[in-house]
Amino acid sequence: MSKLKLACIIIYALPAMPLAALTLPLYILVPTFYSETLGLSLAAVGTALLCVRIIDAINDPLIGYGADKLRTGFGRRRTFFAISLPVTAFAAFMIFWPPIDATIWYLGFWGAVLSFGYTACLIPFYAWGAEMAGDYEKRTTITGWREALTLIGTLIAIALPFAIGTDNAGEFHGLALLGVVIALALPILGALTIWKVPEPREYTKQAVSFADGFRHLQNNKPFLRLITAFFVNGLANGIPATLFLYFVSDYLGTPEMRGPLLFLYFLCGVLGVPLATFIAKRTSKHRAWGYGMLAATLIFAFTPLLSQGDVVAFAVICALTGLLVGFDLSLPASIQADVIDIDTAASGEQRSGTYFAAWSLSTKLSLALAVGFAFPLLGLFGFQPETNNEQSSLALDALAIIYAWVPAILKLGAVALVWNFPLNAEIQRELRDKIENP
């Protein structure tokens, strides 16, 4: 790959950093800040954010469909992306630096605006990346750079709010700092991408109606298999993500290590992306992903064997599983670009936006289900996440098993789905030949 081409890929991937930096705080820090620091009711905050997520779920298919149908001289991917940048940046600023007298209506309104802007930004951004190259391996390079920068953005989101704290809403706090950084970085890096990265060539030969498009999506068996595996693996990752803070605080008894261990996990994830790319180029994308999930399952299996205070051993587990999350982030999105080729060859319309809307919806559903599954199940064993009292041994054992062994079983199911995936480099080249040389 030439230096110019690599430079183009890196410039394309740059907006992934501010986009990732607003994602983690929105789900973890914002509820705590609005309830504890601003003094709003925790139930009201939860209800407002739930409404935002419902709106978000409705946004995905509409924006995906619109992003595929919009055609302007500026480019259908670049146009949607460009319009969404200022909306997303300003809404992030408003959410992360609210006035001290902000109400629940303030959170709900700006949360909905941010939800719309973020979705309108992310779907064409991912579709753009999928269409930048038709080559099987080059797509992995594109998603690898994008997801590596996504992880770096996540590290920034972890570090900045804690650098100056989030306890005083009347002063310039850590969440406000993050809001300012996102509000500046997203438009600047997005504008650089629009300026320097060409609009991908479109291979649409005929327009497809909504009903026919849905039928083609249903008939795309590799896509259905992939998104099922992606959902199951997303659920497997979402459960420990939901329970991580409780595992470190209650099971290991070291709440002061939550931040450092979380930072270590995502830092190793950055290193895992080139490893995933290396293995994928020597085997296949689906088999490399399978190896990564198998390795994560094996490592995670030791977690419930830890005892209180085993921070060093758990740090090793965090480092190794963090390394493997690079596989989960970079490889499935690259395979997704390949299964879109099946639809393009069959339907005659390049509908990457629609497919990544389904992808986005699957991600959100798996995270929501992880929360809805983990806490009620823990409650059956007497675990009380909102109490400062000592948890029972039964509750702690249940926490460890649900945290580690349940996700391990789910990952094995995802491995079974992708191990003999019916789309490899040779088949994908044949599809591209059909698309590009009808």
UniProtKB/TrEMBL annotation:
Gene Ontology terms for molecular function: symporter activity
Residues that span the membrane, as ranges: 7-28, 40-58, 79-98, 104-127, 148-166, 172-195, 223-248, 260-279, 288-306, 312-335, 356-378, 398-419
GO CC terms in record: plasma membrane
Gene3D superfamilies attached to this UniProt entry: MFS general substrate transporter like domains (1.20.1250.20)
Gene Ontology BP, a term: carbohydrate transport
Keyword annotations from UniProtKB, A to Z: Membrane, Transmembrane, Transmembrane helix
InterPro entries: MFS_2 (IPR039672), MFS_trans_sf (IPR036259)
Family: Belongs to the sodium:galactoside symporter (TC 2.A.2) family.
Protein known as: MFS transporter
Organism: Ahrensia marina
